[in-house]
Design brief:
Elements lengths: L15 E5 L2 E4 L4 E4 L2 H4 L8 H11 L12 H13 L4 E5 L2 H18 L7 E5 L8 H7 L2 H4 L9 E4 L4 H7 L4 E6 L2 E2 L5 E2 L2 H14 L2 E5 L23 E4 L10 E5 L1 H4 L15 H14 L4 H22 L4 E7 L2 E6 L3 H11 L1 E2 L1 E3 L3 E4 L7 H27 L1
Parallel strand pairs: 3-15, 5-6, 5-7, 7-10, 10-11
Antiparallel strand pairs: 1-2, 2-3, 4-12, 8-9, 11-12, 13-14, 14-17, 16-17
Length: about 400
């Protein structure tokens, strides 16, 4: 008999009743160190007092009014994002998939309004992940995710990641633009080469096409910059943001330069919940912390500390790990053995990690993770790797 909750998730048998910082407690009192952050979403960890107070205070006033009326909390959050980024204007929605849908629509509409409606095709990359809607699945291009959902939405061309020659070969008379993740999160924590990102900006300028950046997972401080494209010293034309932007409260955004943002006139795009007072109160609280002096520098420092430890563990256990990769506090360990085996061993030691494509164990702790949290996580991971390595050794000896 089917469960009341639809069976589309392979859920771990863990249920949490409270959290504090980077730690979670199950109903039966077990304490685990959360290095998944709800898939890089709980940017301020669990129970952050400033975020909790902002949400509670706003909930006691007004949670939702819809976009039929002005929303001062959204106006403030939008202005703060504009002040801190390349963007001139912001559209708020509820999730990363919606942000990417909005970005795709904006890019296509901008070309149409410029008198080039034939330019609708978008170049995307192998290993990408842009969401679970029909259009974002097509942009993702993963055959497994697309199977069984009918004709694939037209207009997406996929080329190898970090391959500029392939990008140039794919540009044609119908090309509208390029969508890229600065780090492919679901695809295996694969960072783009910084020169590749700079070359993408240059080729978009050369051909008069639009550069869209998917920063759903890499944005809001995850890599040590507010947005990861800043490491390359470039700016996109449009950009999606979600996950950490609300600290765990559902919130997404499309940020854009004026010439692209202005195409979304009334009637072209919309949302019921997006940017409501409660969501934007959460977003403003997150920015209060992320934009505080020194915070992003600390994320970068902690990311380097964790990366050095992961590289050392990979050297110590070559039968378990091939190496470490990533940027800031979005890191991955390429596994030799099945990633699920390593993940299970980590949970047994009290460390929650998540998986990604390319047989990678992904580590994305809250941005407020402490040095002592990192040291405990490294000790847990080392113990887990040691047990997996011993199991590999026994199997080889048989």
């Amino acid at each position: 008999m089917i469960s009341a909750l639809m069976p589309n998730y392979a859920r771990a048998d863990l249920a949490f009743e409270r959290g504090e910082g980077a730690w979670l407690w199950t109903g039966d009192g077990r304490r685990l160190l959360d290095f998944g952050s709800g898939i890089a979403t709980a940017s301020l960890g669990h129970g952050h007092p400033h975020l909790v107070k902002a949400i509670a205070d706003q909930a006691a006033k007004v949670m939702h009014t819809s976009n039929l009326y002005r929303i001062p909390q959204a106006e403030r959050l939008a202005q703060r994002l504009v002040d801190a980024t390349f963007a001139d204007s912001v559209f708020f929605c509820n999730s990363g998939a919606e942000a990417n849908e909005g970005m795709i629509k904006m890019m296509r509409r901008a070309m149409s309004d410029a008198g080039k409606p034939e330019k609708y095709r978008l170049i995307c990359f192998e290993g990408a992940f842009h969401g679970r809607t029909l259009a974002t699945l097509a942009a993702t291009g993963n055959a497994h995710y697309l199977e069984g959902f009918g004709p694939v939405v037209d207009g997406f061309d996929h080329v190898p990641f970090n391959n500029m020659n392939a990008v140039r070969d794919a540009i044609g008379p119908a090309t509208c633009g390029i969508i890229v993740e600065p780090v492919q999160g679901e695809g295996g924590v694969r960072p783009a080469d910084m020169q590749f990102l700079r070359d993408l900006r240059a080729v978009c300028d050369e051909y008069g096409i639009i550069l869209g950046m998917d920063e759903v997972q890499t944005g809001i401080g995850r890599t040590g910059k507010l947005y990861a494209h800043e490491w390359a010293g470039i700016t996109p034309d449009v950009m999606s943001s979600a996950k950490g932007i609300g600290g765990g409260f559902p919130l997404g955004a499309v940020l854009a330069k004026e010439q692209f943002a202005k195409v979304l006139v009334p009637g072209t795009h919309g949302t019921t919940y997006g940017g409501n007072p409660l969501a934007c109160a959460a977003g403003n609280a997150v920015l209060d912390i992320i934009l505080a002096p020194g915070f992003l520098e600390e994320v970068e420092r902690k990311g380097r500390k964790l990366m050095q430890a992961l590289e050392q563990i990979a050297k110590e256990f070559p039968t378990v790990f091939e190496g470490a990769r990533g940027l800031g506090l979005l890191l991955g360990m390429k596994c030799v053995v099945p990633q699920g085996k390593v993940q299970a061993a980590c949970v047994a030691e009290g460390l929650m990690a998540i998986t990604a494509g390319d047989n990678v164990l992904r580590l994305a702790p809250p941005l407020v993770v402490t040095d002592s949290d990192i040291e405990e996580a490294v000790a847990m991971l080392r113990k887990a790797a040691s047990k997996v390595a011993a199991e590999v050794g026994r199997a080889a000896a048989q």
